[in-house]
């Protein structure tokens, strides 16, 4: 009961200090407010950004490997870039060989993309990404058809001139009219529209299937020199197979297909999504350090402000301290009384900083197509840092108050 009473009285003193000396207290707490706002705002923005990026990356699947010419992360300076440049692009026949030889691969798809204009009568959408994909693309990569259907196996293998339009492409070419069954012109050829991708919107990287046209790879490779275009073989592991096990097997299969000697380096890259995740983890780690540095200076200033308030408060209440000690108050009681007051004052500044961050999340969510939330983790962090700053800044003034001589303190006429 004594502790609760002590906390209650300390809170009232803190509020009283804010009410009686509004300008002085507000200016002193401004450093805490700015510091907490700076740190928590940085963490909130980048926590939400990181979650969005990881959601997009995870949507590709953690059981998928991309067989490509270039690695997503370079192996270091001991492997010259021109050796990567001399590597061959993955071939369509290599995908067939992988499916025949592998015991770990469930599905595989071949893909490459080019940029072309898409025409419908007098309407044109320029520089559209044309994604040429093999039959099992929809089983390996996330793709939802909103209207119509996907390619049949016969259409894929027979190089049928059919196309699936992204939502934005269909809207720009046809407006609100019926799309399925219409014919668009790409590569100088007419293609039947058999499907429209379900609207998804831009991801965090600014890309979207809404802006892509999908055509059978067998059809497209007869019209473009796909052997010199960045291509990929994307493989999906069986349900009971780990990604590392599939990676080891594919390394052996690809070396066998390309007839590489035992001492020769791999002339292909097996890329997986965790490389991207690790890269962003390092980036956000650096950003968090920068956030602490920026906010740290404000918190340092705020700490001095809290200490200043507490020294003044001790000076103003010296007589009162003497009376309390004369009536039997222990040193620890006086110490805790002022210490709690410093913590409460600091928490007030921290709460204002968190409220500013909350307003920031509402504004950004309203102005941009990017949902932001202030997480409980960041709220607890902000309050904890505020309390710690209050404790550290208020300890010396509180200690000096607790060591006052009661007789000398009561004689004070401040």
What distinguishing features does this structure have?
414 residues, alpha+beta, 2 domains, ten-stranded mixed sheet, 10 strands, 55% helix, elongated
Poorly predicted sequence stretches spanning 5 or more consecutive residues: none
Run of helices and strands: HHEHHEEHEHEHEEEHEHEHHHHH
Write down the overall geometry. elongated
State the oligomer: single chain
Number of strands: 10
Structural category is alpha+beta
In short:
The protein is of the alpha+beta class and 414 residues long. It folds into 2 domains: 2-56 and 278-410, no CATH class; 64-272, no CATH class.
Question: How do the strands and helices of this protein lay out in sequence?
Answer:
Blueprint: H1 2-20, H2 22-59, E1 64-68, H3 81-85, H4 92-101, E2 105-120, E3 123-133, H5 137-140, E4 145-148, H6 153-157, E5 162-165, H7 167-174, E6 183-186, E7 189-197, E8 212-216, H8 217-220, E9 231-237, H9 243-257, E10 269-271, H10 274-316, H11 318-326, H12 331-367, H13 376-402, H14 406-410
Parallel strand pairs: 3-8, 5-7
Antiparallel strand pairs: 1-9, 1-10, 2-3, 2-9, 4-7, 5-8, 6-7
Write up this protein.
The chain has 414 residues and is α+β, with helices and mostly antiparallel strands. It has 14 helices and ten strands. Strands 1, 2, 3, 4, 5, 6, 7, 8, 9 and 10 form a ten-stranded mixed sheet that branches. Helix 1 (2-20) packs across helix 12 (331-367). The chain is elongated and about 100 Å long. The mean pLDDT is 82.
